[in-house]
Structure prediction request, 324 residues.
Amino acid sequence: MIVQMHALTQSIQLGYLFSEDQDVISFESDVTLCEVFDSFTQYCHDVVLITENTVHIGILTMKDMMRILQNFENLLCPVREFMISPLLMFESTQSIADVLDSITDNSRGKIVVKNNNHVIGVMDINELISLCYSKITPLIKHEYNLLHSVLGLAEEGGEELMRLAATDPLTGIGNRRLLEDVFQAHQLLASKDHSAPFLLLFDVDDFKPINDTYGHNIGDIVLKELTTLVSNSIRKSDVFVRWGGEEFAILFRYSDEKTVLNIAEHIRQLIEQFCFDSIVHITCSFGLTAVNPEETLATVIGRADNALYRAKAEGKNLIQMENN
Prediction:
């Protein structure tokens, strides 16, 4: 099967598997684990590069980060203590076949793909084979038997490459999947840095009449402008997602309830006072709740939704808090 893959990719460059404008975020090796985790949740990436004096020396994946949160107490340790190394460096102009030739069954570490000095991808051998399958399939549809062989090369871990993106395509912020992925990690992190997680659920008041009056295109513009407004008023470490439709959620970590209520009120006032390009103004209603250790996201969302329902029932453009 490797021989078949080698023949198939003899003239195909490694860079074909990646977008040239893709950017892999880098951190110096003395950066703390906490800073790296905040970057994972803010930018929705799966892997970061670790550098030392601008030289790439290792990587850390989101899966590694989850494992660390579950088993390690001190998140102020430098990331170098937890990174994966060594790295196998390849230029994007090298053929996939040449890369396969240079990797043996005993090869360890991660494959880093560069375009000159710009890193455009990080993967392991199984992910390389999976990418070959997903990217090159349109070129060889008529070769059913060969496709079957290539698919067989992708081990269980390769399916991760096929997962849905954790970004909402309309607004560019996280989606429901992102919140589901990082929720437990934030519970664990809060227990270690003595912060308290809070979930704020909010939606646009009377959004259906906006769509009915101005059209869905204008409704989409309103949601994008709203997203930008809120994104600029919260920290990068806060997890802001589009929960669905005109409904949004923010996962905070703060030390006390009063601080979060003040932030929610600040967001409410910003939205109420903002002049949107397409219509005069909108308002939003908010439901806030604290997140307890061990409880599920579904339980927390249900509680926040109850608070949001009360805000709607009591006149809209309000914040209500639902205690446990």
The chain has two domains: 2-162, 174-321.
